[in-house]
């Protein structure tokens, strides 16, 4: 009898809770299952199908969709810019907690307190004016040299047996990691030099992205990691590989750089030290830069290569543009300067188009403000819908970037020319709308990515130097690569052949 009463009571409380939770956002359309549980979205995220599921939800249900009991998906770029704007009262939502690497102080990306976040960004700002170009050049050269050493096939020897395969996905991850190490803390990881996943960083990073994606969707999950028995599963300082190794590495690095009498360097870390950051904040800088700046840039490079390899006219048009500039002396050798690479309109169009079709990551959801009613202001509305306090609003980045209204009726297709055609459209209004919309890949306003200009420089330089020296071919024609669409895209098995075009 007691058991029966307890079960009935439990069911009544549960039903009441579910009813209230459903009712809060019942006026917003979305898949029925998503009104009651986050499981609908979790299933797609866990199986590496996040972006297609967001695109479909936006196409099917409209500009604002309920994709979880307290989670909305917004496909209106203007609303998203307002939400992230400087004067916006939205704050970072619980999804940002999933980005915490340790139980210590949050880093700039996971800091949810707006005042602390602003202060941290302020301290980091000057570090982002450090000249990163020499470091990027070193690693473009290291990438070229690795291909020369191990992977290139001479043009007259294409019948060479066995053919040499190179995992382009892995090498671009090495490139991005080495760049970050060099310009952020003056020590490259040496992945390209050794052609090795040093400390198994990329492997463990890829494995952890699924958990980070899930933790970003289930608000209470990140909090569990500081509780027994989950604490035992966490990486620890002293581990020989992965994030645990990273803790030891960051501690050692910061100690060496802050010890009295340490030789100052000209990297970003030096600027962060000068800004008065605490030891813990400096260590967090090491983590956030590795996390924020390596997968993202390498995904952009990978998907650009895939787009080019599957669209021969664009591949050839880009090659011709680079060759012509090179032949006329407008691209320095052995490494073109950033200013020179910016003069290549077709390269710019290719990079925008690949990023548009395959954004490297999502922007975590923001929390709607809870102050309006207290001040007697109108309630918050998004895309014309009433949005209660404390609702999470996420950006449908992949969906927006395929908008036929903004990008044209063939928005689903890789066609870099769209960025050039519209450049000549009188007022230029259409092209600026397209560029502004593409920018949501980097977030907006006070949440915007701090490394946007660096990412552009890394990828532009890489493509100029690779395309003018080598030709590339897909190995597996039926499945060029394996892609998992998580909060950050994970790419595996992108094997290519590298064939020499010119002597270096
Ligand atoms: C294609 C490459 C990249 C993409 C697509 C990208 C995208 C993003 C996104 C979506 C955010 C979060 C925005 C939000 O909270 O709404 C972010 C934050 C951030 N990114 Fe990037 N990123 C890229 C490369 C980089 C690089 C190379 C660096 C560093 C060198 C970097 C440093 C940061 C930092 C420090 C933040 C935290 C900003 C804050 O919370 O105030 N990113 N990025």
TrEMBL record:
Matching SUPFAM superfamilies: Cytochrome P450
**Cofactors named for this entry:** heme
Keyword set includes Hydrolase: no
Q: List, alphabetically, the Pfam families matched.
A: p450
Instruction: Please indicate which superkingdom the organism of origin belongs to.
Output: Eukaryota
Q: Which residues bind heme?
A: 449
Which key words are in the record? Heme, Iron, Metal-binding, Monooxygenase, Oxidoreductase
InterPro entries the record matches: Cyt_P450, Cyt_P450_E_grp-IV, Cyt_P450_sf, Cytochrome_P450_monoxygenase
Q: Which GO terms describe its molecular function?
A: heme binding; iron ion binding; monooxygenase activity; oxidoreductase activity, acting on paired donors, with incorporation or reduction of molecular oxygen
Family affiliation: Belongs to the cytochrome P450 family.
Query: What is the name of this protein?
Result: Uu.00g071650.m01.CDS01
Q: Which organism is it from?
A: Anthostomella pinea
């Amino acid at each position: 009898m007691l058991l029966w009463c307890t079960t009935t009571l439990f069911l009544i409380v549960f039903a009441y809770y579910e009813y209230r939770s459903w009712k809060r956002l019942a006026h917003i359309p979305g898949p029925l299952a998503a009104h009651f549980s986050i499981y609908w979205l979790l299933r797609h995220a866990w199986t590496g199908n996040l972006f297609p599921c967001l695109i479909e939800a936006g196409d099917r249900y409209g500009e604002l969709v309920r994709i979880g009991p307290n989670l909305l998906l917004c496909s209106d770029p203007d609303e998203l810019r307002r939400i992230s704007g400087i004067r916006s009262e939205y704050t970072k939502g619980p999804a940002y907690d999933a980005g915490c690497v340790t139980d210590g102080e949050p880093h700039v990306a996971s800091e949810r307190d707006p005042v602390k976040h602003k202060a941290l960004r302020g301290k980091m700002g000057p570090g982002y004016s450090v000249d990163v170009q020499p470091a990027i050049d070193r690693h473009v050269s290291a990438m070229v040299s690795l291909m020369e050493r191990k992977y290139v096939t001479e043009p007259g020897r294409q019948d060479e047996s066995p053919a040499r395969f190179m995992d382009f996905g892995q090498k671009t991850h090495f490139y991005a990691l080495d760049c970050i190490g060099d310009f952020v803390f003056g020590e490259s990881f040496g992945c390209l030099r050794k052609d090795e996943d040093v400390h198994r960083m990329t492997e463990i990073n890829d494995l952890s992205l699924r958990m980070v994606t899930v933790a970003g969707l289930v608000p209470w999950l990140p909090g569990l990691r500081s509780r027994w028995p989950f604490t035992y599963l966490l990486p620890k300082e002293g581990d020989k590989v992965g994030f645990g190794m990273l803790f030891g590495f960051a501690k050692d690095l910061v100690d060496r750089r802050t010890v009295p009498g340490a030789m100052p360097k000209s990297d970003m870390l030096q600027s962060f030290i000068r800004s008065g950051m605490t030891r813990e904040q400096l260590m967090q800088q090491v983590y956030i830069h590795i996390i924020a700046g390596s997968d993202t840039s390498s995904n952009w490079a990978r998907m650009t290569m895939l787009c080019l390899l599957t669209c021969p006219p664009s591949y050839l048009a880009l090659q011709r543009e680079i060759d012509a500039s090179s032949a006329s002396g407008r691209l320095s050798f052995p490494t073109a300067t950033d200013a020179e690479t910016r003069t290549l309109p077709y390269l710019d169009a290719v990079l925008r188009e690949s990023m548009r079709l395959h954004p490297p990551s999502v922007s975590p959801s923001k929390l709607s403000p809870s102050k309006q009613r207290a001040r007697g202001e109108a309630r918050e509305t998004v895309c014309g819908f009433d949005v209660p306090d404390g609702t999470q609003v996420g950006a449908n980045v992949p969906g927006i970037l395929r908008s036929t209204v903004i990008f044209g009726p063939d928005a689903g297709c890789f066609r870099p020319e769209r960025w050039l055609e519209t450049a000549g459209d009188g007022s230029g209004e259409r092209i600026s709308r397209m560029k502004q919309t593409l920018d949501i890949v980097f977030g907006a306003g006070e949440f915007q990515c701090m490394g946007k200009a660096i990412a552009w420089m890394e990828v532009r330089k890489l493509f100029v130097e690779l395309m003018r020296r080598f030709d590339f071919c897909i190995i597996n024609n039926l499945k060029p690569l394996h892609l998992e669409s998580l909060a950050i895209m994970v790419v595996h098995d992108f094997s290519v052949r590298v064939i020499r075009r010119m002597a270096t």
